[in-house]
Amino acid sequence: MRYLVTGGAGFIGCNVAAHLKGRGIDVRVVDNLSRVGSDANARWLSEMGVPITQLDVRQAEPLAAHVAEVRPDVILHCAGQVAVTTSVTDPRRDFEDNALGTFNVLEAARTRAPKAIVLYTSTNKVYGGMEDVRVELTGDRYQYVDLAGGCDEQRQLDFHSPYGCSKGAADQYVRDYARIYGLRTVVFRQSCIYGYRQFGVEDQGWVAWFSIRAALRAPVTIYGDGKQVRDVLFIEDLVAAYLAAVERIDVAAGQVYNVGGGPENQMSLLELVARLDRLSGAPLKVSYADWRPGDQRIFVCDISKARRDLGWSPRVSAAQGVEKLYRWVDENRPLFSFIR
Fold it and tell me: Catalytic positions, please?
């Protein structure tokens, strides 16, 4: 099979591309190389022989022409704007990157590669703040009172923030192109993904950001009380979920899956800090600031549908994954020379 990965020089995209290349699968990458760290990831992929084309998914005609040329069997759409805070500052660019960019990918698939499988990297932010869900503070972490298994795919959508709106609109377009045009699309509503080659920044990629700051002995700011919780999923497990959907596309086509670490792999910010303190041998310098708009006390996704349909479940625990990431960052410090 031939894969085309949009945003393939980003964190998720480059890991998928490298995995596929390692298995001898034909994979091509497009990326506009605008994100911090994408140039380093692009060089890494080029060195292993992955073809990379500099292309912006907001440009409909060049994208469609490229899809026609490549003739992919699978399109993994990872390109887009990734931070809530950036979307608030520049909502038009956020809309163009996420909503318009995804529409262009779908149209390119519909008109130039209608038999291709289209996998879309959506987000748990489509569920909004979930203010109606009861939350309690237990020790040093927030917990759901009634959602023991986490948030499932039947949860009402409630787009909150420009980022939530742009990703949510794209999410629904991807679903509807399966219904209306018969495209074999799959939506992954992803929780907190972390892992190798993630150049996390303060407003996105918090596990990587904290790990980088710990390795560099640099201070970090926690917004809120640090007891907020997310279910975390290591990148290797996310790649496995994508491949499982392709292998079981007869079941997965047209479906939406919550994909994260699930209840077994939830972690608070304070718990991450404690793990990094042990790994680095020195306390992370932490300061606190006010909660940011729309920040949830907790989000943990119910992954039972993905487990049932795809035969998939996470294999890397939160403790194992944090150690893997921290060791990689510590061994590759020159890659993070741009961080002050």
Answer: 163
